[in-house]
Design a protein that fits this description.
By secondary structure, the protein is of the alpha/beta class. The protein has nine helices and eight strands. It has an eight-stranded parallel sheet. The protein binds pyridoxal-5'-phosphate (PLP).
Length: 231
């Protein structure tokens, strides 16, 4: 077995185990394999081990891989910062975008989404720690943005995404994730169809699951260290 296949099994076991001790069902939690900087071959190894959801951050790199792996039934998620002049390929080639943080981006994605395919699934990225210079809409702006996005025809708001402030303190981590969960709960009062909390990475997956994550974004624990040299 390859190391990627082995890592994937380990991550899945950990996910199931954490779900169980958090009294949740493992099948409520989607494992998103974050494959930025990894080769198409590496993605294929994970695919052959049953992985279907892949997350990418860099547009050109991801388009190359989408083309190389077009025979495979992969569900592609865009999770990197979205510039407004780069929305079209995201609208055309991805099933999900997790990093929408302003109305203009959502409007462009909706306008550019081909109407012969399913609506693009959207998460609003929230700057949960109110950190300066960090992407994400503020908790205060969130209700209005969510309301506006819901009116757009070719995208479907699914929930929220966050990258919490860097900390080793599990209590602070828990609190950040709980804030995101509570923000979703507030929105669900008006929009009960929202079902996604995209939170948790390799280092904090357990805490995120305990706090209600429905989608964990895992890179390093599956693929190993990233190779930035090719960029
Ligand atoms: C890179 C990245 C991840 C994965 O991080 P790991 O620590 O490698 O698991 C998750 N989410 C986003 C938004 C990322 O950019």
């Amino acid at each position: 077995m390859t190391s990627i296949a082995q890592n994937l099994r380990t991550v899945r076991q950990k996910l199931s185990h954490t779900a169980e001790i958090s009294q949740r069902k493992a099948d409520e939690i989607t494992l998103l394999a974050v494959s930025k900087t990894q080769t198409a071959e590496a993605l294929k190894e994970a695919y052959l081990e049953g992985q279907r959801h892949f997350g990418e951050n860099y547009l050109q790199e991801s388009l190359d891989k989408i083309e190389q792996l077009s025979e495979l039934d992969i569900i592609w998620h865009f999770i990197g910062p979205i510039q407004s002049n780069k929305t079209r390929p995201i609208a055309e080639h991805f099933a999900w975008a997790h990093s929408v943080d302003r109305l203009k981006i959502a409007q462009r994605l909706s306008a550019q989404r081909p109407t012969d395919i399913a609506p693009l699934n959207i998460c609003i990225q929230v700057n949960i720690g109110d950190e300066p210079n960090k992407s994400g809409c503020s908790v205060e702006e969130l209700p209005k943005l969510a309301h506006e996005i819901t009116k757009l025809p070719n995208i479907r708001l699914r929930g929220l995404m966050a990258i919490p402030p860097a900390t080793q303190d599990p209590k602070a981590q828990s609190k950040a994730f709980a804030n995101l969960r509570n923000s979703l709960k507030e929105l669900q009062k008006e929009q009960p169809e929202l079902d996604t909390l995209s939170m948790g990475m390799s280092a904090d997956m357990d805490t995120a699951i305990a706090q209600g994550s429905t989608m964990v974004r895992i890179g390093t624990a599956i693929f190993g260290q990233r190779h930035y040299s090719a960029k």
